[in-house]
């Protein structure tokens, strides 16, 4: 998060989001849907799946971080996260999780931090198309 | 000759409507449990949280009814987690409102009679039991409940926790809830912030041991 956050991702990160979700709007809808269908305490993440070389939205419970899912199938790099424990929003939004995620998406999410994370993740993952000439 | 296709709804002449639930009234005013639990929390907890469980449970039941009549097993199974969560939320909170009471209606008065004897016999004293419930509640990770339950098969009291909105029967089909303490953050955050132990210390001032005793005596006859 950052003060004056929100707005939209740009450049390479936006391109990757458009590639994996169709559009930024579709990604935003899917992220909000993940929040509204989560029960209890947990987190919603935008992660980069290393093996599959694509972005995905995942949910975790309690204090689980996708970094601990350290196997071939689920090797994830976190790009953004949203805390869904009630202590994260109750004083500002009471029970209204929908208002909380909307505020996060519109005013708080730091696409700068997300861009830095995906840039770092590219030390492990080559997201560019392989430049293998077709015979 | 017409073939009856597989999965046809042979109950098609039967229009049965789903029996939906409604939010039970609180047995006291929102402010009646102060200062232990604030009126603001009681109002939100009842009108927003509990109401949401009731609304979403009813919605899930309608969807389940539709899935059953279409013989859509995949949809039926997919609905189970929302039914458990919202149904459990309704069950648990309905018990919770009854196991709290204003001070001038017996809230905080210690248990008497057979339940009191059972507590002394099994735990040594009421203080020890309360300590145990509070430490389990404080240690619970994430969202959930801590319960004083009766195992009606073995006639034994026990302290048990459940996660999220799982009802106590998910820990054992013979378990009957006597008292529940909601340790979801929404139950205390506005008043106690992150100091869950203070909430757990104060809730005993409005605990309705009369309710617990009634349930216990009914099961133990």
Automatic annotation (TrEMBL), chain A:
Q: Which InterPro entries match?
A: Mn/Fe_SOD_BS, Mn/Fe_SOD_C, SOD_C_sf
Domain Manganese/iron superoxide dismutase C-terminal, first and last residues per copy: 12-116
Tell me which Pfam families the record gives.
Sod_Fe_C (PF02777)
Cofactor(s) recorded in Swiss-Prot or TrEMBL: Fe cation
Q: Which PANTHER family match?
A: SUPEROXIDE DISMUTASE, SUPEROXIDE DISMUTASE [FE] 3, CHLOROPLASTIC
Q: What is this protein called?
A: Manganese/iron superoxide dismutase C-terminal domain-containing protein
UniProtKB/TrEMBL annotation, chain B:
Its top-level enzyme class, in one word, is: oxidoreductase
InterPro entries (alphabetical): Fe/Mn_Superoxide_Dismutase (IPR050265), Mn/Fe_SOD (IPR001189), Mn/Fe_SOD_BS (IPR019833), Mn/Fe_SOD_C (IPR019832), Mn/Fe_SOD_N (IPR019831), Mn/Fe_SOD_N_sf (IPR036324), SOD_C_sf (IPR036314)
Q: Please report the stretch or stretches of sequence annotated as the Manganese/iron superoxide dismutase C-terminal domain.
A: 111-213
Q: Which reaction equations make up its catalytic activity?
A: 2 superoxide + 2 H(+) = H2O2 + O2
Keyword Metal-binding appears in the UniProt entry: yes
UniProt cross-references to Gene3D superfamilies, sorted A to Z: Fe,Mn superoxide dismutase (SOD) domain, Iron/manganese superoxide dismutase, C-terminal domain
* Primary site of residence: mitochondrion
Q: What are the residue boundaries of the Manganese/iron superoxide dismutase N-terminal domain, all occurrences included? A: 22-101
EC number(s) per entry: 1.15.1.1
**Pfam families attached here?**
Sod_Fe_C, Sod_Fe_N
Family membership, please give it.
Belongs to the iron/manganese superoxide dismutase family.
- Role of this protein: Destroys radicals which are normally produced within the cells and which are toxic to biological systems.
Q: PANTHER family from the entry?
A: SUPEROXIDE DISMUTASE 2, SUPEROXIDE DISMUTASE [MN], MITOCHONDRIAL
Its name, as the record gives it, is: Superoxide dismutase
What are the leading ranks of the lineage? Eukaryota, Viridiplantae, Streptophyta, Embryophyta, Tracheophyta
């Amino acid at each position: 998060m950052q003060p004056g956050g929100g707005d939209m991702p740009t450049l390479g990160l936006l391109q990757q989001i458009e590639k994996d979700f169709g559009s930024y709007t579709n990604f935003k809808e899917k992220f909000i849907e993940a929040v509204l269908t989560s029960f209890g305490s947990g987190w919603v993440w935008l992660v980069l799946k290393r093996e599959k070389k694509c972005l995905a939205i995942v949910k975790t419970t309690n204090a689980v971080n996708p970094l601990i899912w350290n196997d071939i199938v689920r090797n994830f790099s976190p790009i953004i996260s949203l805390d869904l424990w009630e202590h994260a929003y109750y004083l500002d939004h009471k029970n209204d999780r929908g208002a909380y995620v909307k505020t996060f998406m519109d005013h708080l999410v730091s696409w700068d931090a997300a861009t830095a994370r995906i840039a770092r993740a590219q030390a492990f993952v080559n997201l560019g198309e392989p430049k293998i000439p077709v015979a | 000759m017409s073939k009856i296709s597989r999965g046809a709804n042979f109950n098609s002449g039967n229009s049965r409507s789903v029996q939906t639930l409604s939010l039970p009234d609180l047995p006291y005013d929102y402010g009646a449990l102060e200062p232990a639990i604030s009126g603001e929390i009681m109002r939100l907890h009842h009108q927003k949280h509990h109401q949401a469980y009731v609304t979403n449970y009813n919605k899930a039941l309608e969807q389940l009814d539709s899935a059953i009549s279409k013989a859509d097993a995949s949809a039926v199974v997919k609905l189970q987690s929302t039914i458990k969560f919202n149904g459990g939320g309704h069950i648990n909170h309905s018990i919770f409102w009854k196991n709290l009471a204003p001070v001038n209606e017996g809230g905080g008065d210690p248990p008497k009679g057979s339940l009191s004897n059972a507590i002394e016999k099994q735990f040594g004293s009421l203080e020890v039991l309360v300590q145990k419930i509070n430490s389990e509640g404080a240690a619970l990770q994430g969202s959930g409940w801590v319960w004083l339950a009766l195992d009606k098969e073995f006639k034994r009291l026990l302290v048990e926790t459940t996660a999220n909105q799982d009802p106590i029967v998910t820990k054992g089909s013979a378990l009957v809830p006597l008292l529940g303490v909601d340790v979801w953050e929404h139950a205390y955050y506005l008043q106690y912030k992150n100091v869950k132990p203070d909430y757990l210390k104060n809730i005993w001032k409005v605990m309705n041991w009369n309710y617990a005793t009634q349930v216990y005596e009914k099961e133990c006859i």
